[in-house]
Amino acid sequence: MSHQLQEYQTTLIENRKADHINIVLQKDVKGKDITTGFEQFMIEHDALPDVDLDEVDLSLQLWGKTLQAPLLISSMTGGTDSAHTINLNLAEAAQALGIAMGVGSQRAGIEQPNLGQTYKIRQVAPDILLLANLGAVQLNYGYGIDEAKKAVEMIEADALILHLNPLQEAVQAEGDRNWKGLYDKIATIATQLEVPIIAKEVGNGISGKVARRLADCGVSAIDVAGAGGTSWSEVEAYRQQDPRRRQIAHCFAGWGIPTAMSLMQVRKAVPELPVFASGGIRNGIDAAKAIALGATLVGSAAPLLDAATRQSQAVYDKFSVLLETLKITAFCAGVSSLSELQQVTLHHKSSWY
């Protein structure tokens, strides 16, 4: 590859990553006419909890790491200088809070090695559960075990996310459209990679049927990333120069499986696996509902992005509100541990009358 071509491709990748950041920050890209579904549930209040709030302990062990709470800063970005600042701020906050973090798709860092440093955050977060990230569809475009290992090694990750974004790719001008045969390729990676693999949607949810097939392929966890939060078809609509393609992308603003529904389906389909809940979770009460519905970890991304462009303390402050709300929710439900929170009484609106 010529130096000029390499520079051109690097510029294209950086521009796309910068577009994604700016659009999420500046535009209304929330899913339209769809919610997460958590508003349909209520945790039963305990008017006289036999609990000391200061003793509420929501810590857990996962893949050899200790987390102080079942929380995950979900994958956002990488591949541009501004993304590196964002990732460092997110990672510093994750380290201080004792929670997990995933980086954005590392395709940019693999195809343009000079961009790899935009994902590297171990220097500020040596102890966190850190998740690498590649698009599963890239396994149909020349990627294999070598690229998976590079992604993990690039950031010294504890696990690898293979993200599933068929809708985003379908409406993206430069999207990858061939999704045939990926189950077998994911199974091959799962047998060869030494760290756990997480199959993750990006905001349209995973059904129980798909989760079961992924579990049979050997993935170690499922992140449902359901509908009700950021819509990546809306993000891509704002990137589209072609009015026709923009209109098509906007048509899918309400597409997907609501996060709560996806979580329930996946937990039932793969009871043996950790299941992560992300997609539109904005506060600790919804996080508690997700845990009561079977989530091992609860992820949040877009609400942290603005804070992450400024400083790690801003991220810490914002996420610590979610964490403290989660602890108070456990307290008001009369429980003091994560295992107890998983068993709290949860009422659906349909049962209220």
Short structural description:
Helix content is 43%, strand content 13%. With 353 residues, it is an alpha/beta fold.
> What level of helicity do the residues show?
40-55%
Fraction in beta strands: 5-15%
Most strands sheet: 8 strands, parallel, barrel
N- to C-terminal separation?
67 Å
Q: Mean pLDDT, rounded to whole units?
A: 94
Helix count equals 14
Q: By CATH's scheme, which homologous superfamily applies?
A: Aldolase class I
Record the SSE blueprint.
Layout: H1 3-26, E1 41-43, E2 60-62, E3 65-67, E4 71-73, H2 81-97, E5 100-102, H3 107-111, E6 130-135, H4 145-155, E7 159-164, H5 166-171, H6 182-192, E8 197-201, H7 208-217, E9 221-223, H8 232-239, H9 243-251, H10 259-269, E10 275-277, H11 284-292, E11 297-300, H12 302-308, H13 312-332, H14 338-341, E12 346-348
Parallel strand pairs: 4-5, 4-11, 5-6, 6-7, 7-8, 8-9, 9-10, 10-11
Antiparallel strand pairs: 1-12, 2-3
Helix pairs in contact: 1-8, 2-13, 6-7, 7-10, 8-9, 11-13, 12-13
